[in-house]
Amino acid sequence: MAKAQARRRKVGPGGARPAAPKPDGVPLGAVTDAAPVEAPGGSAPSKVDAPELHINRELSLLEFQRRVLEEAQDLSNPLLERVKFLSILSSNLDEFFMVRVAGLLKQVASGDQELGADGRSASAQLQLIRQQVAQLAEESHQLWLQELQPALEKAGIRIAEFSRLTRGERAAANAFFLRNVFPVLTPLAFDESRPFPHISNRSVNLAVVVRDSEGEEHFARVKIPDTLPQLVQVTPASSAGPSPEPSTGQDTPELVLVWLEQVIAANLGLLFPGLKIVEAHPFRVIRDADVAIQELESDDLLETIEEAIRQRRFLSAVRLQVSSMMPQKIVDILTSNIEVEPQQVYRIDIPIGFSRLTELTSLNRPDLKDKPFTPFTPPSFGPECQEDIFSLIRRDDILLHHPYDSFQPVVEFLRQAARDPHVLAIKMTLYRVGRNSPVVAALLEASENGKQVAALVELKARFDEESNIEWARTLEDAGVHVVYGVVGLKVHSKIALIVRQEGDAIRRYLHLGTGNYNPTTARLYTDLGLFTCDEELAEDATYFFNALTGYSAKREPEKLLVAPMNLTEKLEELIKREIKLQKNGEEGRLIFKMNALEDPKMIGLLYRASQAGVRVDLLVRGFCCLRPGVPGVSENIRVTSIVGRFLEHSRIYYFRNGGAEEIYVGSADLMRRSLRHRVEIIFPVKSPSLIDHLKQVLSIYLADEAKARYLGSDGQYTRSPRRTDPDAVNSQAWFLGHQGSA
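The structure corresponding to this sequence follows.
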């Protein structure tokens, strides 16, 4: 936690590694001294919007997936953390196909010939995507088979092929099948009288060929139940697996696991009695998940979205994964009935669906995981503190840096507001709150206590629609004023407003953040949150909520940057100010931290800043369409991506402003959808000491050599040659080691 009067943290953990760059004047990671790389084709393009200056979004996103794979390959990560990253990679690629590839396929099908910002057609992008995904899949399976699976076995976790199980292990597997699996299975035949069954999204299935007594072969499909463990424990009873106590791996009997589909395949005779099992091969389907919601034609947005979710189950297949051993005749049956083209078929080694490896992370093996940590809860927020949270905020603005600082103060902020007799109203936006949400519980309690409570629940949060619909109905049933969103826009901003009676006056308290009001992801993502009662920000927040819940003539905020109202315009002004200062002899400096950079207009403006001599550091965790290091265009721009234990999710925008430094924080990335199609908030950090604190945070990120990757002009990322040195800065580890030091 950082408070307005707090001293800056000291950089460098007590001599264990060299100090990071000092924040004074914010050099914050000088632009590389390496010779700049020319753009493809030689000389610098004459226009900053030239296609060769834009890296393809989809290929850049796949480069991010490669960085995730690197974490699975990294021997310095604990074994089960490496397995977790492999699972994350698989899940990420599923979503990539469900959204990004699905969109390109629809573009091709519609005959849309529009080229991307990089000059590539949709069909050209699909060809390159296939090549990259095939390479990622091959490397993933080689990593699993050659490194991770053997390492797990050495650590006492054997994931065995069914054919290699001992007699006792097979008996355990078969007993599990009869007791838990057989009653759940529904074999579905495919013949003249029975249509080809629907294959649900992301499901693992067996394509089964059986032969009857007359020698005729038949095709059937068996779905692997996703409600059951995907890895079945078959450790014999005499060595019943891991102790409930945490294990070091040295005193634990070997844990033997086998994939559920192999257990089912070995027992198919019970599903097809009297028939001979000829062969069985696993396959998996990924479907388009990007549903179109007709908001303007809708009388009830909630019901419309519910119907769209139902329709999602039946959208087109975009990817078919099959076992590398599957005969072509079975592939042909699948492709013709699932309706995918040959180029959408991916042959891979088993197992299919590495996302299921996430089950291994629940094993009680702390010796194979990251060292656990407890987020820091400042004493002023602890149970021993006699002051209420509102008096703390009145004294100083307070900044929390999650997950290093606990999310609990945010929950307490809402709980105290719910119970405080002086609080009159609570208003907030909810995007992804998760299940069993203490945030929603606080809003329900506030409504029960007679407060005026208004919540904007964004029903269009992709893959969280059903959860948000449930919460919206729960809140409405409790008397909360619920708004479902804004027609044509997605409300992605993170803001809570508390209205409190204090004597004869009304005071408003705010929480503004970069991350969701979700305690679970607050332990997994890096985010920032600000508590303040600043009158100017509170005034803007009041108009913001009035515009969301009612009708309002256009009124631009005074201090908040709100998309799609004034955010783009203000950011452009701030960047142009740095360009002007640089041309007038001042040192222009921009440091932006975000999840993604894709907006062509912003990219062009950053190129112009570089051409003017402004030094630009971009900390972009995910995809980045800007091409750095091009002579005459972007040689003053450095792009760094940090991928590590926590998902980098905070957005910070630093402007040197001739020494009168300004920092903005918020929910928006520099993407077209964020700037034009979402309701986003970026807010100024006003306190000088909090500005210093955030400069320190940026300096640590830019000093990172252990987990940083540097984007080259060729679109590829490289790592520091010092990344394995004991004194190489790991920014996330540094923040963990300095919890509560501010």
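The chain has a mean pLDDT of 88.
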